[in-house]
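Quick one: structure tokens for this chain, please?
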Amino acid sequence: QTIRMNKAALVVLLVAVTSVVCEEDTTWQVGVGSANPGGALVHGRANIPLHKDDNSRLDANVHGSRVFGGPLDGQHSLGAGLQYEHKSGQDLRVGLDSLNQGGTLLHGRASTPLHMDDNGRLDANVHGSRVFGGPFDRQQTVGGGLDYEHRSGLHGGLDATNTRGYGTTYSATVGGSRPLGAGTFSIDGGLVKRPDSSSMAGQVMGTYKVQW
């Protein structure tokens, strides 16, 4: 979920991610990347299974991040959430995150498949968020989009998100992934059009995941 959590946005250009799968499918992820302009972004995430059967699964997660160096030094976030997945392809996520300048962000997202076959899938999603407390109190967003995945590793998406009192932000992403050595390497690119700018902003992110 993306909203204007801070006055200065973190743009992650390159992220190296290592995942460790422990007993009972608990997954740990740690990443280090660059935060624009200057500095390093360190983030971590743990996914903890709560329930799993032949039809569905429910996971909890905790996550956090912090910027070291540069003008954004010290900015940080902590959060937790729940994710429900059904074998039909439906997915529901809710979460709470602390904001660096005070307040708590409540956010949710639901997706459902529009088309699924052996080659890939196309999903539709809706999402929303609201801030409670702090300087961004009552700021809220609502939006929706499309996500596509192909078995070749190609993936992409379109999204429109309206922030109350700010306007609508449009974004598009495309990327690909493939096995590389002991893990999987992915590269993604995106374009964003914000209501306060007449130009498009772009970013590129590379990710390498290893599981053992």
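The chain has one domain: 12-210.
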